[in-house]
Amino acid sequence: MRKMVSCLVIVLVSFSAMAEHHRVEKGTGKDAQNADLHAAIKAFDRAYATNDVELYFSFYADTASVFVGDSRVNIAAYHEMWTGLMAAGGGVELNEMSDLQVQILPRGDVAIATSFIDNRTRSPDGTTSTSRAFETGVWQKINGNWQIISLHYSGITAEEP
After folding, report:
1. Element (H, E) at 7
2. Is 23 strand, coil or helix?
3. pLDDT tens digits for 72-118?
4. Which of 2, 77, 108, 147 has the fewest Cβ atoms surrounding its Cβ within 10 A?
5. Would you place residue 34 in the very low, low, confident or very high pLDDT band (cuts 50, 70, 90)?
6. Which CATH architecture has domain 24-155?
7. Domain boundaries along the sequence of the chain
8. pTM here?
């Protein structure tokens, strides 16, 4: 038992020491040094909201992992699905981000962006569905450009904030 408590204390101290090295930014990006990251996050969201499929997918790294609900989606299959949805007359009618928080890791080339998303999507037959979700994107600066290496999108029930 004593060993377990000692290990727990060591782990917690390690986490608190690591946390001091992470910078949290709320809102729209007051830090000019990371303006390109905040611009990329906003452009990614805007591309999705305006159904600009090619621009939207240009923010994903080729090997990105995308989790929607309880499924992992292959990026190529996800792109094909969205292209097909647009061609059939479906699309996004509303995609509003709120409470954006960005954590930049110490080296400055990896960041985690979290936000709430209010979304309304139109199916090809014209019916719409609305949802509220929590989105987490892991961004990495690759060849001078911020790209998503992992995205997790989880729906929130009416009882949740």
Report:
1. helix 2-19
2. strand
3. 999 999 999 999 999 999 999 999 999 999 999 999 999 999 999 99
4. 2
5. confident
6. Roll (3.10)
7. 24-155
8. 0.78
User: Are β-strands 145-155 and 60-68 bridged in parallel, bridged antiparallel, or unpaired?
Assistant: parallel
Contacts 24+ apart (CB under 8 A), 17-25: 21/105, 21/106, 22/103, 22/104, 22/105, 22/106, 23/103, 23/104, 24/101, 24/102, 24/103, 25/101, 25/102, 25/103, 25/104
Q: Which residue has the tokens 């999507």?
A: 121
Burial of 78 (0-12, 13-18, 19+ CB in 10 A): middle
34, two tokens: 């990371």
Q: Which helix (H) or strand (E) holds 95?
A: strand 91-104
